[in-house]
Design brief:
Blueprint: H1 16-19, H2 48-53, E1 56-57, H3 63-83, H4 86-91, H5 116-145, H6 147-169, H7 179-207, E2 215-218, E3 224-227, H8 229-261, H9 264-275, H10 277-284, H11 298-309, H12 318-325, H13 352-368, H14 371-378, H15 384-389, E4 392-393, H16 405-427, H17 434-462, E5 476-479, H18 484-508, H19 514-533, H20 544-570, H21 573-577
Parallel strand pairs: 1-3, 4-5
Antiparallel strand pairs: 2-3
Helix pairs in contact: 3-7, 3-8, 3-9, 3-10, 5-6, 5-7, 5-19, 6-7, 6-9, 7-19, 8-9, 8-16, 8-18, 13-18, 13-19, 14-17, 14-19, 14-20, 16-18, 17-18, 17-20, 18-19
Length: 591
């Protein structure tokens, strides 16, 4: 089959027509222009009419993507397997006569004996630290090591952190005051390795799929479909997130029982053993992975581009300056073709398309600036919901096992969304686009916190100690499984907001800035953790209900404002995804 000789159309009324100077042909006009090693060789490309009328579907995923997802699964097993017991390890005291921290079937596991505020503060710091370091990981990958090697370094550092974590929990150390110091060092080292890993594993998994252009597929029943690479990247991250949560579920579930019946040393050792799968799989598939080499100081070039575009646009009047900076021709004036005949700066080693890609990447980063207000609601499952479970009747179930409802729900809901919900909406002609999904993520996160707040109200109402349930020796008669609603709603919000955010960071970033934009996306979780520290005064009786309600209000309002601010990008999704490939040469002086 040969490609269509027609150009791919863009909507005439799209706002992106004014913002991006893109070529109208984004697919090969003839098969002869493709080399045999091109991933699009031998494919049929859609005509204008077919693009407007045919149903779109995702492509199959390459095996290399599954291998990298397996690495992510092992890493998340270790990360969540350890962190699920952090709250009890910090907050609850060492049981009488215990040297391991195990509470047994009727007791409460614990070790350091600090209060809930300390536990929330330390776990919130850990979340902050894990998601600040991705910015460094992105820099090291883009400039020096490449994504694959940065992932390998991150695995090595995190392994060292796991070993220190085990030391903090072994008999002879766990009983001493110094255990908290060893534990704090373990958090810093493990979080550093995690940050290097997280910034690069997500782009690496999506880069294994190499097709970037729409093409035609005919089913056994004769139906002609358009295979959309953007939908394929979306599917990649859906299943990447599925593997993530399989690891998280098994890790959290087994470690919660290990902590309760054996001790914290086992809850930290087993995840370390599973973590060793990461270097083994990375090494075994080293010749199969698509690996993007480092490209030099691309960030410096992007900053120079931005400064170059600002020339002559400053004014003593701030309103005039703002209008000049947001003008439709702002980036157009910085394109190399705009300065033909002039002596271009030595750092301008790119073409017009790369300027469009940088602008698109900055738009994605602007979208991500709202994410801390979403993560604020999600982060409640890392500490406060675990503490809430300890104030309810668990009937022998470890209080921290309830957090497994989140990954368990995700394992069910991800295939449901991929195979039923999203295709069903597509067949109905409803475009559940990235911006719509993100908005839905904020709102479902809001509903999850409303559920938690209402539940906290009834805990206070039924607790023998009234509004001081967290420090009460007796628990509320309410069954702990009432928390299920919060976890299921949070799971839906993750699919809509978190998975889509990973997809958005990859598809909107310039190819040589993908780790950086992914790092910015992950850094929003760090900001959320920093904001979460401000809520620490509410994380104690009798104010816990207002902690959840405040977070619910913030997430709800943020979701509404998010849609108001970015709904114009919703209609421009195709244009943003189909910018022509750019050309960029590394400036040796920048590296």
């Amino acid at each position: 089959m040969v490609g269509s000789t027609k150009d791919v159309p863009f909507s005439a009324d799209s706002k992106l027509d004014d913002e991006f100077s893109v070529e109208k042909t984004t697919h090969p006009s003839a098969q002869s222009v493709l080399a045999e090693d091109d991933p699009h060789y031998g494919l049929e490309f859609p005509t204008d009419e077919e693009i407007a009328t045919l149903r779109r579907v995702p492509d199959t995923l390459p095996w290399a993507s599954y291998l990298i997802a397996l690495v992510e699964m092992a890493e998340r097993f270790s990360f969540y397997g350890c962190s699920v017991v952090f709250t009890n390890f910090i907050q609850q005291p060492l049981p009488d006569g215990s040297r391991t921290g195990a509470g047994g079937p009727d007791g409460q596991s614990g070790a350091l004996g600090r209060n809930q505020q300390t536990a929330t503060g330390l776990t919130t710091f850990y979340q902050f630290w894990c998601y600040v370091i991705p910015l460094l990981g992105a820099y090291m990958a883009d400039v020096h090591w490449g994504r694959y090697h940065t992932v390998c370094v991150g695995v090595g550092v995190a392994f060292l952190g796991h070993v220190i974590l085990i030391v903090s929990s072994v008999p002879g150390v766990i009983e001493k005051e110094g255990a908290i110091g060893v534990f704090a060092v373990a958090l810093i080292v493990t979080g550093f390795g995690t940050g290097l890993f997280k910034a690069n594993i997500s782009p690496l998994v999506a880069e294994q799929y190499k097709r970037t252009k729409l093409f035609i597929k005919t089913t056994d029943k004769g139906e002609r479909l358009i295979v959309d690479p953007a939908m394929t990247i979306s599917r990649t991250y859906m299943y990447f997130y599925l593997f993530t949560n399989i690891g998280a579920l098994i890790g959290q579930l087994t470690m919660a029982y290990s902590e309760k019946y054996v001790g914290f040393w086992l809850a930290y050792t087993l995840p370390t053993v599973v973590f060793m799968l990461c270097p083994l799989v990375l090494w075994a598939g080293r010749h199969r992975y698509t690996r993007t080499p480092p490209t030099g100081s691309v960030m410096l070039t992007a900053v120079r581009l931005w400064r170059f575009a600002m020339r002559g646009r400053w004014s003593l009047n701030p309103i005039t300056t703002f209008k000049n900076m947001s003008a439709a021709d702002f980036w157009e004036s910085a394109k190399p073709s705009h300065h033909r005949g002039e002596s271009l700066p030595a750092w301008m080693t790119f073409d017009d398309q790369w300027v469009d890609e940088v602008r698109r990447g900055l738009k994605a980063c602007t979208v991500f600036l709202w994410y801390p207000l979403y993560w604020l609601s999600y982060n409640q499952i890392n500490n406060n919901l675990t503490s809430q479970a300890a104030t309810m009747s668990t009937h022998g179930v470890p209080n921290d096992v309830l957090s497994n409802l989140d990954p368990f729900a995700l394992i069910i809901l991800i295939p449901f969304c991929d195979m039923i919900l999203y295709p069903g909406l597509n067949r109905m002609g409803l475009n559940f686009s990235a911006i719509k999904r993100m908005t839905a993520g904020y709102l479902t996160g809001c509903f999850a916190m409303i559920w938690a707040g209402v539940l906290q109200h009834y805990i206070y109402k039924t607790s023998p100690c009234g509004n001081y349930a967290a420090t009460c020796d007796e628990v509320s008669p309410l069954n702990v499984w009432i928390q299920t609603g919060s976890y299921i709603l949070i799971a839906f919000s993750e699919i809509f907001a978190s998975v889509t955010g990973l997809e958005y960071a990859f598809t909107k970033a310039p190819k040589n800035m993908r780790s950086l934009v992914m790092g910015v996306f992950l850094f929003m979780s760090a900001i959320a953790s920093a904001i979460g520290e401000a809520f620490i005064p509410l994380v104690s009786d009798p104010l816990l209900m207002w902690n959840y309600i405040s977070v619910a209000i913030i997430a709800g309002i943020a979701g509404i404002l998010f849609w108001v601010c970015f709904r114009h990008l919703d209609a421009a999704e195709d244009e943003l995804n189909r910018l022509p490939d750019s050309h960029f040469e590394t400036n040796e002086k920048d590296t």
